[in-house]
Amino acid sequence: MESVFREERGRLLASLVRRFGDLDLAEEVASEAVETALVRWPIDGVPSRPGAWLLTTARRKAVDRLRRDRVYAAKLAVLQWEADREPPPPGPDPGADLPDERLQLFFTCAHPALPADARGALTLRYLAGLTTAEVARAYLQPAATVSRRLVRAKQKIRDARIPFRVPGPDELPGRLPGVLQVIYSLFTEGHTASSGTHLQRRELADEAVRLARILHRLLPAEREVAGLLGLLLSVHARRDARTGPDGELLLLDEQDRTRWDGPMSEEGAALVRTALSGPPGPYGVQAAIAALHNEAPDVPGTDWPQIVALYDVLAALDPSPVIGLNRAVAVAMRDAPQAGLELLDGLPGRDRLRDYPPYAVARADLLQRLGRLTEAAAAYRRALELAGTDPERALLRRRLASVIESVREGEG
């Protein structure tokens, strides 16, 4: 049942918002439909088409709510007929050439009338099903800040009467960067979960890949769409090798590369050629970096000079602290740990990374490799405080224990 709810929630919300044009109403009746299912399904069994069952139940609950609001009185006859008499709609076809309602709403939530910082947060929270805390982590922001941003965004949709519709061809390019960011953020949460007992939320990563494929079919000439899909495929190709038999986290140098998905990796590399057929964009460059990792026989055999060169290009396109962090790690692999650490400690905007787990992990690793074990132990403790999943915490505990043991041996 949990799997069904997780899978169907986004589709359910999108269908309800399209039909009723009210985001708050859609979320409320979707939650009520799930609550009803939790009571009914253990007794009656899970329906053969759970998505259609949830949608029908939610629509009837929406009609009940609207009946109590005189503003909607003129609509009730039509809505009642739809809710009570129309047969349940077929489930969405994952292979359809046109985007499903969720992707349509991704473009709607990327409307230029909305503040830039609210577009992705709104979509991730209400259409992709992430919690407010997960959205906050994706944007390196406090949860309270993101919560206020969501409230303001919904108010803006109501006040500006932003329509829930598919934008026309002339509007798509202006909406595209926001949509790409949303899909990428969704994949990021699926690739490494912000919390929980498992490292990955595979259903989110799979969903991001599916949406990126739909978007690529819709806009085949857009190089950055090809770049995003290539990036997601190249990274997702490693999914089965990232954890061991007991769910433990395996780093890149520990992974069995024969378990990487070869066809998916090759598809990602082919998309890189499309993405870089003109002036490079951020997603195309990141896709090229991921493809280089996949082509390497092992970590020492990786083309680190080329990866650093690509990060130089990426830093010019997107001079963010996270890009700077990744570039510093690559420089450490190309040159030496000291060079990478100096870059980390001198990053512009480093304060934004203070609560970013990969930053603490990178510093701890470089300090350990430099033999600065007391500092490394402190950095690992900080990384342990920030880690969100059990596999990450288990790995950091092992590393911290190893550093502490080395310190004791040195003292002895």
Description:
One of its GO terms (biological process) is DNA-templated transcription initiation. It contains 19 helices and no strands. Residues 77-99 have low confidence and may be disordered. The termini are far apart. Among the domains are: 2-85, no CATH class; 354-412, Methane Monooxygenase Hydroxylase, Chain G, domain 1, CATH 1.20.58. With 412 residues, it is mostly helical.
Topology:
Layout: H1 2-20, H2 23-44, H3 50-67, H4 76-85, H5 101-109, H6 116-126, H7 132-138, H8 143-160, H9 172-191, H10 202-218, H11 223-236, H12 262-275, H13 282-295, H14 304-317, H15 321-334, H16 337-345, H17 357-369, H18 373-386, H19 390-411
Helix pairs in contact: 1-2, 1-3, 2-3, 3-4, 5-9, 6-8, 6-9, 7-8, 9-10, 9-11, 10-11, 11-12, 11-13, 12-13, 13-14, 14-15, 15-16, 15-17, 16-17, 17-18, 18-19
Which features does this protein show?
sigma factor activity, 412 residues, transcription regulation, RNA_pol_sigma70_r4_t2, Methane Monooxygenase Hydroxylase, Chain G, domain 1, globular, mainly alpha, RNA_pol_sigma_r3/r4-like
- Please tell me what the overall shape is: globular
Major sheet characteristics:
none
Order of helices and strands: HHHHHHHHHHHHHHHHHHH
Helical segment tally?
19
Radius of gyration: 23 Å
Q: What is the CA-CA span between the terminal residues?
A: 56 Å
- The amount of beta strand, in percent, is under 5%
Total beta strand runs: 0
Mean pLDDT: 86
Helix content: 55-70%
Q: Look at the helices and sheets and give the structural class.
A: mainly alpha
Low-confidence spans: pLDDT under 50, at least 5 residues?
A: 77-99
Organism: Stackebrandtia albiflava
Keywords: Sigma factor, Transcription, Transcription regulation
Domain DUF6596: 175-275
Family: Belongs to the sigma-70 factor family. ECF subfamily.
